Each structure stands twice: as C-alpha cells, then as structure tokens.
Amino acid sequence: MMNSIFTNSKDARIAAAVTAMCAFLIFLRIYYSTDISLISAITDVVVAITLFVIMFIAMANNIRYGHENNKLTFGGSLRGGIILWVASLIMVAVHYAICSDIFYMDARYIAFLEGSLSVRFIISFLALLNGSIIYILLRYKDGLKEQKQNEIKLLEKLKEAELEALKSQINPHFLFNSLNSISSLTILDPDAAQEMVLKLSDYLRYTISNKGVNLQSFADELENIERYLEIEKVRFGEKLKFKNQIAQECLKAKIPYMLLQPLYENAIKYGVYSDSEAVKIITRARMSGNAMVVEVENISNDENTSRKGTGIGLKNIAERMKLTYGSDNLLSINSDGETFIVKIIIPQKDLKEG
Amino acid sequence: MSEFKLLIVEDEEPARLLLKKYVSEMDDIELIGECTDGFAGVKSINELKPDIVILDINMPKLTGLELLEVIEHKPAVIFSTAYDQYAIAAFEKNAVDYIMKPYSKARLRQALDKACKSIDAGNAADAIDSLVKNEEPKAEPIRRVAVKNGTKIFVIPIEKVDFIEADGDYVKVHTGESTYLKEKTMRFFEMNLSPDEFVRVHRSFIINVNEISKVEPYDKDSHVVILRSGKQIKTSVAGYKALKNCLGI
C-alpha cells in the first residue's frame, strides 16, 4: 500500500519512521502527564496512529489520482481544507467510538478521552495537513524528474527522425552502385571515373552539409537533382532520359531541402528496373501567384509497372509539406498506365518557418 | 585444367565491362554470353547451359531471384549486389555465394574457385534449390510473380492474380485467363503478399480481396467467398476471421 503511494521506497521508509516517532512522543506525553493506565495509553496511541495512517493513505490517493492539474487555486485549496476538516472530525469520532467502547469501565480514561476531544481534533487536522503538504511536495519533485525524462525522450526522438531523414537522403543502393560504377570506370575510362567522383562528391557534400537548413533555393535543389540523375545515367545509359522545363523566375523560389529527391529515386527504382526500355523524367516548374508549381513526370512504356511501391516516398513528401506549410492538399498524383505525374504546390509566403 | 563456361547477367554496362575484362584474363573461365535483363538471362541459361552464372539481383523485367525460380538448367550461381541486406541474409542462410559490388579481381577469383569446386563436387545446384524454397519474408511485399508455361516466362502483376491454390508441393496461381503452376509454398505467399490485398481464407486458398464479389454463409459455421470470376471458395473458421479482419468488418 505504501509502495503504491510513494514512488520510491526511501520516501516510504522515512514516512513510516517519522510516523512511528510521533506515535512514541504522543505516547510519552499522554502516559506521563496524565494518570491513565499504561494499557489504555498504548491502545489510545495505536488506534489514533492507525486511523491517521488510513486517512493519510486515502488523502494521498486522492491527491495522486484526483486531478492531474496541480495548479494551486482558491477553489482547490478550499475543497482540500474542507476535506481535511471532515477527515479530522471522522478520525476523532471513530477514535472516540472505538476507545470508549474498549475502556467503558475505566472512568479515568473516559474522562481523559472526553476532555481531550478538541485538542485531538486540532492535532489530527494539523497532522493530516502536514502529511498532505509533504506528500504534495514529494509528488511535485517526482513530477519534475518525470518531466525532465520526457523532455530527454522527446529530444532523442527528434534526433532519430533527423537521422532517419538524413539516411534516406543518402540511399545506400545509390551510393554503393555509384562506387561500383567508379570502380569499373577507373579501369575502363579513368577520365569518366574522375568526373563521376567529382559529381558524387558534390552530391554528397550538398546532401550532408545542408541538414540543418530546411529551405533551399530551387536553383540549388535543381542543380543537385541534375547531379543525381547524371550519376545514375552513368549506370543506366540510354535507359534513363531526363529534361527540365523551368520558368526563369522559379530559380529564386524556396523549396524544402531535398524534398523532391524521393520522386527521382522512385522513378529510377520502378521505371528502370521493371522495364528495359527507356524511362523519361521531365521536371516542370512555373510560378502561380504566391506559389511555385512543380511537376515531376515519369514516363515509362510499361503499363504493368506497379506504382504501389511509390507510397513511402510520397508519404514522406506529404509529411514534410504538412510540417513546413501546415496544409495537406499541396500534393497531387495523376497516373495513367504510362505516365505518372506528381504535382507539388510550394507556397512562397506565409511559411511556418523561414 | 578443364574450362568452365560462364554467363554474365548484369544490366549495368560499366559493371559488365569490368567483369568481362577480369574474366578475359582468366584461363580456366570461358565467357559464353552476357545478358542485360532477367528475361534474356533465363533464355540464355536454358539454351547455353553455362556451368557458372554471375547474376545481378536488381535487373529489369525479372530480378536475379525471380530468374532462379523459372530456369530449367541449374548452374552454379554467384550473386552480385551492391546493397541488398535482405537478399544477403537469405544467401548466407542458404550458403549461396555472393560478391559485393564493387569487388576486386581477387574476390571474383575466390568466388569462381568456390563455384568450380562445387561443380566438381556435383552439388552446385543444392544451394540454389534451398534459396528458391526459402520462405523468409522479404523486405517489402512482392508485387509480381514470375511463372513459366512450357518454355514461356510470364511476369504477372499481383493485381491480376485472382487466387492462389495449394497443389501438393506446388501452388497454382490463378489469373482471370489462366492457371500457372509454381514451385513455392502457401506459406511463402501468405508471408510475402501484401496483407491488405491477399488473405489466406483456407489452408489451401489465398484470395485477392479486390476480386471478391460477395461472401455468403455456407453451412452452420463456414462461409463461401464468391469471386468476380464466379469461382466459389469455402473459408475455414480461422480464414473467415482473417478475411473479416482484412476487410475491417
């Protein structure tokens, strides 16, 4: 019972020791300064302390489970005061009922009992008040600890998410396949190998260095996408074709960092691999009012290419759009057998973060 | 020293060129062909009957793993992959040899030596057989099934599969138009098909839920699923529960 009230056993042991000490002091006080018998003094104290412990446990549970909101209010304090008052009254009444029943033939004790009722009430009230305040302070201390732990957990989660995002940006398939192409080219065509190492370095540098900044200029993003596609083109040759139709004013527009990357990875994964003919990726961008409209179109001549697998990449994009712009209708997908178009509207004002 | 006939199945040109260069410097290996996609790979393996195949995993039309499921001639296989942790786990479990791209000539030589040894010992096909029978769940649900009908290979998108039926050591894959026999277990399909689209409604049946026309009570404690094609499939008690779960009712 005590363990369920106190979150650690040390607090529980201290509370028990203090209670026992008080019980002993009360016993000394009433046994040596009155003329009642030893047995009645001991019984009196035992009953009183038992009642106190029961009341304290009830109150502690009330404090613990009663209300999560720990703000100090007048209403709350008043209610607490009334509860304490009633609890003390009940304690004294029950104590009186029990002890007067046990020692009904002991006139001296009954006289002592009846004479001390008002003092008992005050002492009970103060004891419960004291106990409650100490208990509330203990809970508050534990609460602070818990809050700190929660904050640490939240921070860890955030870091994990960031790491996850970073990991997904450097796709290991892409990295190792590129290294493999370079390995081949070093022997077959050293100049091409050097060119590819440079492109890959630039791509990796861009991917890694910008992790903290969310918004990038579209010109930078576009350049990195082209780098990515050129690296992949070394592997896929004529099977991969791409072109851009970008309105000049879009180059200055801002776009979440690496937002479009999954679209190109998907196009290659599902286009080039399920189809041995060419895959064509067209990137279009134009301004429309206060927003940039980006369309990534992916044409493959295989009707059976299953598009279900594109879900994760698109979900990621949708999630980031929602986090950045607070809206979830900026992304749309249009697909008929051969072409697959993802259209993304990127607001250029009223950003949640800049 | 006898010569071993080698076939390369690899879609990326730089990788293929380097591999050819490495192999051209080896006396005991004779390169008899190269393929750039899985379909061509199946045809060449069956026709040219190579001793050893170096097989890429990610390829157009048919992956290296799907290729294994439909070939008639069983050569010694060395997989090559840049990064595919699920496939690698399966290779290791089934003692199938693989090389990680990029690889050195020495590493290639080592793999080829191992393949030659297993051919001489006459157990080259064993590892492949156990890999094909592997039932471990893959990284993501499969989206297509490679089947053969006589000498023809078909790749069926799973949307076109009506239901899958157990048939001894094989399963029958039913599409609207035909039925194909495949050497896989029901358990394999149960674990590797998307659980949102396919449900095992009976010990012997996995159905495509998008093909369901209606579900009716059959007798006291069983139901019957009627597919769009008119085919009726009885459900088991557990199967009906799984079906209700999948349909959210």
What can you see in these coordinates?
The complex is a heterodimer of chains A (354) and B (249). Chain A has 354 residues and is of the alpha+beta class. Chain A has two domains: 2-160, no CATH class; 170-347, Histidine kinase-like ATPase, C-terminal domain (Heat Shock Protein 90). Chain A has eleven helices and seven strands. Chain A has helices at residues 2-5, 9-33, 38-66, 74-102, 107-115, 117-169, 172-188, 190-209, 218-236, 261-274, 311-325; strands at 215-217, 240-246, 254-256, 279-288, 291-300, 331-336, 339-347. Chain A has a five-stranded mixed sheet with strand order 2-4-5-7-6. A two-stranded antiparallel ribbon of chain A has the order 1-3. In chain A, α3 (38-66) packs antiparallel against α4 (74-102). The longest helix of chain A has 53 residues, at 117-169. Chain A is rod-shaped, with a radius of gyration of 38 Å. By secondary structure, chain B is of the alpha/beta class. Chain B folds into two domains: 4-132, 3-Layer(aba) Sandwich (Rossmann fold); 144-247, OB fold (Dihydrolipoamide Acetyltransferase, E2P), CATH 2.40.50.1020. Chain B has eight helices and 15 strands. Chain B has helices spanning 13-24, 38-48, 64-70, 85-93, 105-121, 124-132, 186-192, 237-247, and strands at residues 4-9, 29-35, 52-56, 76-81, 97-100, 144-149, 152-157, 161-167, 170-175, 179-182, 198-202, 205-208, 212-219, 222-227, 232-234. A five-stranded parallel sheet of chain B has the order 2-1-3-4-5, sandwiched between helices. A five-stranded antiparallel sheet of chain B has the order 10-9-8-12-11. A three-stranded antiparallel sheet of chain B has the order 13-14-15, with no helix packed on it. In chain B, β14 and β15 form a beta hairpin. In chain B, α2 (38-48) crosses α3 (64-70). The radius of gyration of chain B is 21 Å and the shape is elongated. The termini of chain B are far apart. The mean pLDDT of chain B is 90. The chains are: A alpha+beta (354), B alpha/beta (249).
